[in-house]
Amino acid sequence: MNYATIGTGWIVDRFLSALQQVEGNKCIAMYTREEGRARALAKKYNVDNIYTNLEAMLSNSQIDVIYIASPNNLHYEQAYQALQFEKHVICEKPFTSTLREAESLINYAIDKGLMLFEAITTIHLPNFKLVKKNLDRIGRIKLVQCNYSQYSSRYELLLNGETPNVFNPEFSGGALADINVYNLHFVTRLFGRPKAVNYIANKHANGIDTSGVVVMEYPEMIAECMGSKDTHGLSFILIQGEKGYIHVENGPNGCSKVYMHTREGEVRLDAQDNENILFYEVVEFNKILQTKNINRCYELLNHSRSVMQILEEARKDADITFKADKNPIGKRD
User: Fold this and answer.
1) pTM
2) Tell me: the pLDDT tens digits for 51-92?
3) Which residues form the Gfo/Idh/MocA-like oxidoreductase N-terminal domain (predicted)?
């Protein structure tokens, strides 16, 4: 299948590296606002066409799939436009800025019979699937702790009076949307939607969250999801059951090392052999696209919708407002 990308950041580089490892796929076009920013990336992956006009790229009939890795606030508009041009869409996390946007995209993709995916590494990783497979072995689960902390160099810009996109409410930024979203995907994919969601956040003067803790309450379990872009910390996950616990080192993004502890001792769970964690989601999306397994696509979309519901509940609980909250939603055909 022929791909095109929107964005030129490091994540696009990693996506294209993963894409070239999956036979039968090729990136043939890139969209960027400034052509110079895409030249080196295009040369690295032998991409022939660089566009500075999005509609011109979407009009290219040779393109099958659009991969979107632009600022969060642009995800909805660009994904909607790609669907209008009959393209399948893979959109980076967070899927959209708001639940309304997510539901609008999902409904539109279903109406058009097109594939739409959220590019979230966690739930497609072999080690994550091993965690899910082995949950029963640690007994009834009572507590889950998730911590994804990664000090951001852009936080220093924020402290110095600048407003980088990732800390800008107009760009739908913040620690919850940028980093804690991985924790929410991890917990929700394993345990479903909670019955209650609360978010306690450290907020900058502009109203954006720089770190915080989401508490997800289930009938017999509590999950605590911590995400921080303003501190250094130890990223990890602990799933604690009555018969043992599962420890995921380095947090939910890569699930790089997983250990299960029971009365019988410690067992290492590991089925990942590719250093590029995006490889596994690319393999999954490619399989769905090639086999036209629309039901599998829609099941993944239902999961993304659930996470967006939790994200929005948490954000509203902490009184964090995005510009996108006030944007009108509706079809543009």
Assistant:
1) 0.96
2) 999 999 999 999 999 999 999 999 999 999 999 999 999 999
3) 1-117
